[in-house]
Amino acid sequence: MRLNPRLTALPTYPTVVLDRKRDALHAAGLPVYDFGTGDPIEPTPRFIRDALTPAIADNCRYPTVLGGPAVREAFAGWVWRRFGVTLDPSTQVLPSSGSKEAVFHLPLLVIDPDAADRGVVFPDPGYSVYYRGTVLAGGDPLPQKLAGDFHQRVWELPAEVLRRTRMVWINSPHNPSGAVLSRDELRRTWEVCREYDILLVSDECYADTWFDAPPASVLEVATEGVLAIFSLSKRSGMTGYRTGMIAGDPRWMTRLRELRANPGLAPQDFVNAAAAAAWNDDHHADVRRHGFKEKRDVLVAFLREAGLEVVASEASFYLWVRVPRGHDGQSYAEKLLEVGILTHPGRAFAVTDAGDEYVRLALVPDVETCRRATDAWREVL
Ligand SMILES: Cc1ncc(COP(=O)(O)O)c(C=O)c1O
Fold it and tell me: Is 63 helix (H, G, I), strand (E, B) or coil?
């Protein structure tokens, strides 16, 4: 079998590795505290499910890339309420089938695999699809290594790197660290990208999952030369629906719409109907956020008492925990696995050795299970 060498060179997708570990724990009959994959267990609110079924037409015809006006207007309404930014729903908004496919496909918009300047900058550690989408589009992956406070400072990249960059990914709130970029940092990032004529793509899929203060959006800074990505997966408990949004510069959006017509990237109309209901409502997002915060508080109290440092973790759906001396993320994750606690070693998110001394916990198990997990964790301290 002759496969695409760019594909075969990629490491196994991180959640696949985790699924195998979880299945092995189940098979061994061990209790599993699954802080691995970020897939919330809280039910999708009833009113969202109720919006989906009546929208299944007798004859579900092909959906369009643009989607109907209801979902785009509902999303623009949320952007206005949340960030005070006005978007034109007819030219500045497109629905996506979850934000993952948008992240994966976006490099196809700018990358010429034969050009010398085909660089894509992304945070490292970071969501692994920035790297994978770049490689499979024939781009040149340029991981920007993060450490310390895990803030990505694009303006610190050497001019030589910026000159061969076509696209910069930022991600705030950041997966895996939960670090949040300030409005000032977003502005500086945007200014650098304008100076070098680079498309700035801001992945803000955790914009509504925060613990203490709502994070700013790049859209508050500008839309020129900018695309921003949003998701209902965690905000509204809709991971299985596959529903996200792309917003930004109308000139780029026109091109993106043309690109997305090629593979037919168009969420189903009934999914868009459910998504419209979700974007129109903020109450359920508040309720979910408080639920995640409750779990965070239980775990952070325990980790502090245990002398483990929780770094960044200001927002998103994750805790970023520095492992004790004598371990790296991999060895500590293995140790936690012995008592049934499933975490992501930080290294799984990195192309370089960034994040090596960390594990990531996704706030998935309910509060009671989080408490029981802390008892199990005590056994390995
Ligand atoms: C940073 C980041 N971007 C995008 C996604 C994709 O999310 P979805 O496709 O569920 O919208 C994820 C999922 O975990 C993520 O962590």
Answer: coil
